[in-house]
Amino acid sequence: MQYGMIGLGRMGANMARRLLRGGHAVVVSNRSPGPVEELEAEGAVGARSLGELVERLATPRAIWVSLPAGEVTENTLSQLAPLLTRGDIIVDAGNSFYKDTIRRAERLKEGGLDFLDQGTSGGVWGLEIGYCLMIGGSRAGFERLEPAFKTLAPPDGYLHTGPSGSGHFVKMVHNGIEYGMLQAYGEGFEILKSSDFDALDLRAISHLWNQGSVVRSWMLELAERAFEKDPALSSVRGYVEDSGEGRWTVIEAIEKDVPTPVLALSLLMRFRSRQEDSFGAKVIAALRNEFGGHAIKSAE
What we know:
Layout: E1 2-6, H1 10-21, E2 25-29, H2 33-41, E3 45-47, H3 50-55, E4 62-65, H4 71-80, E5 89-92, H5 98-110, E6 114-121, H6 126-129, E7 132-136, H7 139-144, H8 146-152, E8 158-162, H9 166-193, H10 202-209, H11 218-229, H12 245-255, H13 261-273, H14 279-292
Parallel strand pairs: 1-2, 1-4, 2-3, 4-5, 5-6, 7-8
Antiparallel strand pairs: 6-7
Helix pairs in contact: 9-12, 9-13, 10-11
């Protein structure tokens, strides 16, 4: 089958490669030409504009959009939709906010276009291992593109989650859980590193915990790799971004009155990681000195 891919970043480019390796024809487009040229060398058909990509796809078309959430995706969909014809399908494979997805699906449906939201997990390992896909939208659209989903995912690695927005909603909660897991591992390894046992080998412990332990996981495999490269992580700055989905998960929990202290605090700790020196901590230190005479460490 033939598919289009708009956006050739870390996820989009490797999804295109996995489709190519699965025997599908892929037409690719990207804002900068370099990734297009790379994939052309691997067998894809390159397009230098949205219009050219649409022209090179047989109808009914199926086009994946793998772009950052927000304005970039919104603008791309607005430019792409008028170029398509009734019966074409657009798949948003990015991390869009699920309420935006519901709105976009309703708007595109008015023009006769189907719209699927593909929550995508797998990161840079997706090309080799396959992507975990959480897919919302019409059942008919899902079934039509199921050959592509089978190629992109490992066995049992894709699911039709329900109506429009449900795929991105499930992926949002998935990422919120990820925040909590990462925070727990980070705190645990910091305790190990701070212990009086100088000989603790964090790489070896990561490997050990994956041998039948109740905390075993793929993340521990990645921790083992990271500690093997840099045992003290001395080359890594403890600055942690968030893609937005952790925030959206916590906001959703607040709106639904669901208590999520672990997820909320893991999000707040990411904010803390970006401060060179927390002013809030300065206030606490100063107050402790005022009421209890506790020593203050100089900022110099």
